[in-house]
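Quick one:
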Amino acid sequence: MNDTLQRFLFENLGIRGELVRLDASWQAVLERQDYPPVVRTRLGELMAASVLLSATLKFDGSMTLQIRGDGPIGMMVVECTSARTLRGLAHWEGEPDEASLNGQFGDAQLIITIDQKKSGRDRYQGIVPLEGDSFAEAIEGYLYRSEQLPTRLWLTADSDSAAGLLLQDLPGQYSEEDAWNRVSTLAETVTEPELLDLEQGEVIRRLFHEEDVRVFESEPVSFRCSCSRERVENALRGLGHDEVTDIIRTEGEVAVNCEFCNRRYAYDAVDVERLFAGPEQPEVSTTRH
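Output:
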């Protein structure tokens, strides 16, 4: 299994590049839900895109890419942290088979959220229409409009792996006028099998062997869910004592299932009373999950 992010830089051209390959982390997502082929492909592309995009940003926390629309695929979300851990899921109806992005998601929005609670910085959220024929085009357009950064993306996924390539122009650092066009043209020759099957160093050599490229140390990427009992309990407290005890009376317990990892959190009547007890109350041990 090869789950890595590989950064590289074109010396003296002001262009950076990134390659990502997801194997075990992609399989961890697929093991938790049986997605139709079209949904699976789009989710894999969005996971690859989230890792690539996170590596272009400076943040300490999590970045979420979310798509919400009124089409057969109603929602898709991927969370990637600054530690290169990620998780993802999708909601759909029927068997989506439309080839176009609009046919799959309908009238949809691309929502990018950066959460840096640990560092005390404000939460950032950008919302734009989902436009273009692919996720790559949609994200390229978002970056150009919001950051004025020319960016190119190539994304692919199958039942075994998800992968992607990113190039980004760093304005004001050109030493050659046509560098961006030349490097982009070289990258356009990459094929999906190359991204999915070749070692990342081989992809860089194949595409850019005539360029002066500095390759940095690769970074591991892994699947990890950020759900926790603390988060679930905070959500239950937000519902209020009366509503939670009503659920206990009708259902016998309060059960919360994480859609990302299928982890189950269960609370009985004793747990609920402990949850809403004052700080002076002794803590009651939690139930199994």
